[in-house]
Amino acid sequence: MDPFYYYTIDQPAIAEFKDRGSKFFAYSFPIDRIDDCKKKLSVLKKEHPKAVHHCLAYRLGVDGATFRVSDDGEPAGSAGRPILGQIDSKKLTNVMVVVVRYFGGSLLGVPGLINAYKTATSLALQLSPIIQKSVEIRYELNFDYHQMNEVMMIVKQFNCSVVEQSAQLFVELKVGIPKHRIEEVINKLNDLQGVTYRTAVVL
Fold it and tell me: Would you tell me which of 8, 102, 131, 146 could form a disulfide with 94, CB atoms 3.0–4.6 Å apart?
């Protein structure tokens, strides 16, 4: 994978695929944490209480190292893996796809199921705009409140993202600095007197 950029989807999408009476509704989501996945799945189970299966796959992290597949009662390897295969074929991460199945009375067999879950996922991902994002390194900045404008100018200039901010006598700002701009940002911060920084622990 590219050390400086990754690809994900910009917004959720829904697609439907039918085969011999069975309906497959594929939901694609941009996500950042495993907790988000659990919440999305819980919502869909409430929305579709009569569906027979809620199969899913997700891949997480800028290195794409965290993933999960679930066949949710379908034959092993017939649902979760085909869903993940479509996410991976587009080289995406921080993406979850849940495919909800309503049984139509006819057994599709393993090849039919693989095709259905793969196709439904592919349709949903086609409807989700793919975006390129910078791999970011989290930093914690500390500075006097009157330096806020100077610091924020640097944050905006180098497309850093503000993760968290708290202000009392001093401002504590957690930011994500694009990996390929780290040296430039650190040099700019070093030019400001009284600004301290350190890499932040990501929980």
Answer: 8
CA-closest candidate to residue 121, choices 113, 133, 111: 113
Whole-angstrom Cα distance, residue 156 to residue 198? Answer: 19
CA distance 186 to 168: 24
Summarize pLDDT for 108-117 with one digit per residue, the tens: 999 999 999 9
CATH of domain 5-132: 3.30.230.30
Out of 2.60.120.620, 1.10.760.10, 3.30.70.1150, 3.40.50.2000, select the CATH number for domain 135-199.
3.30.70.1150
Q: How many angstroms separate the most distant Cα atoms in the chain?
A: 72
pLDDT tens profile 9-44: 999 999 999 999 999 999 999 999 999 999 999 999
Beta bridge partners of 167: 171
Number of neighbouring beta carbons within 10 Å of residue 191: 10
